[in-house]
Amino acid sequence: MLTIHINDNWLVFCTFSENKLIELNKINFLEKKSPTFLLKSIKKYFKNSSEKLSDLENVKLVYYNTNSTLVPTDLFDEKNSLNFLKFNTKIQVDDFTANDSLIDNEIKNIYVPYVNINNYIFEKFNSFEYHHYSTILIEELKKRLNSNFSNAVFLNIGDKNIDITHFNKGKIIFYNSFEFSNNEDVLYYLLYCLNELNLDTKKILVSCTGQITIESALYELLYTYIQNIEILDFELSDNDQYNKILNSNILLNLYK
């Protein structure tokens, strides 16, 4: 199985066999790239890896962008998907929208995938799955809820974005993604969200994932303001050269 993680700044190709990661390739770009450029890069990867990928049985895509919004299923109307999105992201009238179901179908995640990439993968493999990264992230974080804390906040640190998710008694209360440039930005957005959600920094548990370690300056900064903070562990690879990349993005070894 092949999973392609698609971001405007990078692509990651993860190949699995019997549910085990056997190969990981990441392509970084110096600046944001267009969907057209990303598709060319994917085609080039397939061309250079044709022998290894000849017997693929399953392909999945994960889209990493901020063009998404969560809507309660009871209020969801697919015909109004663009109207839901326009409140928190820039959209075009001809944008194609998709939606994922999550949290036992209580929530719809509306987002904009790249049609050119979807069409190419469909033509090449006839069938495939695709999701927005926040769908997979939220579902995984829900599994990690700590029974000792009825309120819990998760902070996921990516390359240039952070994701803040709040659960209360097993229900998702809040999710949002923010662009950041430095550690102080991360602290600001986290404290701002905690304040807006009326959560006490002395009592709330903040569980961190992604590009943060106990030894990092970011962890030290957050710990100054938040007493209950932890870093979650996730499955790594037997191949040490992959683990730095896997540690930076928990979804790479989860969506398989």
Structure notes:
The chain has 256 residues and is of the alpha/beta class. It folds into 2 domains: 2-65 and 112-138 and 236-253, ATPase, nucleotide binding domain (Nucleotidyltransferase, domain 5); 145-231, Nucleotidyltransferase, domain 5, CATH 3.30.420.260. Helices cover 29% and strands 32% of the residues. The chain contains 7 helices and 13 strands. It has helices at residues 35-48, 81-85, 115-125, 133-143, 183-196, 217-225, 240-248, and strands spanning 2-7, 10-17, 20-28, 59-64, 68-72, 98-102, 107-111, 129-132, 151-157, 161-168, 171-179, 205-210, 228-231. The strands form 3 sheets. Strands 3-2-1-4-8 form a 5-stranded mixed β-sheet. A 5-stranded mixed β-sheet has the order 11-10-9-12-13, with helices on both faces. A hairpin with a 2-residue loop joins strand 10 and strand 11. Helix 5 (183-196) packs parallel to helix 6 (217-225). The longest helix is centred in the N-terminal third of the chain and has 14 residues, at 35-48.
CATH topology of the largest domain: Nucleotidyltransferase, domain 5
CATH superfamily of the largest domain: ATPase, nucleotide binding domain
Structural class: alpha/beta
The secondary-structure element order is EEEHEEHEEHEHEEEHEHEH
Assembly state here? single chain
Mean pLDDT: 90
**Compute the gyration radius: what is it?**
19 Å
Our estimate of the beta-strand percent is: 25-35%
Major pleated sheet: 5 strands, mixed
